[in-house]
Amino acid sequence: MKLVSVNVGRPRPNPWKKGPGATGIDKRPVDGPVAVHAPGPKGSGEVGLAGDRAHDVRHHGGTDQAVYAYAREDLDVWQAELGRPLADGVFGENLTTLGLDVNGALIGERWRIGRDVVLEVSGPRIPCSTFQGWLGVDGWLKRFTGAAVPGAYLRVVEPGEIRAADPVEVVHRPDHEVTVALVFRALTLEPGLLPRLLPAEALEEEVRELALRRSASAGPDPSP
Length: 224
Known about the structure:
The protein has helices spanning 72-82, 129-135, 140-147, 180-187, 205-218; strands at residues 2-9, 12-13, 22-23, 27-29, 34-36, 67-71, 95-98, 110-113, 117-124, 152-158, 160-162, 168-172. The protein is of the alpha+beta class.
């Protein structure tokens, strides 16, 4: 398991949102080491990689969305389906990985990258209108959502430096079955799954509150 590339955003005007503004979805591979740090709470635009930032500060960035990872294997599947090349970073991911089950990762799972950096899986990426406009594929949000391979957001547990080709090691897997893909399905097309997320202690707080409300209103989950 390793990093194929480490990608940071090049700000560009965002014509896919109302009003003036920029987007950092255009991420490109970086040569050499990139510093990784914990960005602090959402709202400032700070993210986990030096040279990158979130421009929609209400919905992106902060502690729980410090770093975004997507698997090269999943990009290759989309590349074949769309019939066009998809470069590393094109989905707006900071880390393009190889050999790592990103969507099957457990919430709270920890990855050591290179010598120093440890990241913790916090949840899935939820697609937005900027992603739709950037890809320029009709019906992209529906298609991406239906596939349920969203990639993972991560928190920074131990800072340091990373670079392309660094090894990735899963150093902790919590004792539950709540995966990135399960959380994504619960937050999008299958809200009945929300109560099943509660065993994951490392859920984002907003997701936990949503799951608790759903659990209280629905009663016991009859699914096996």
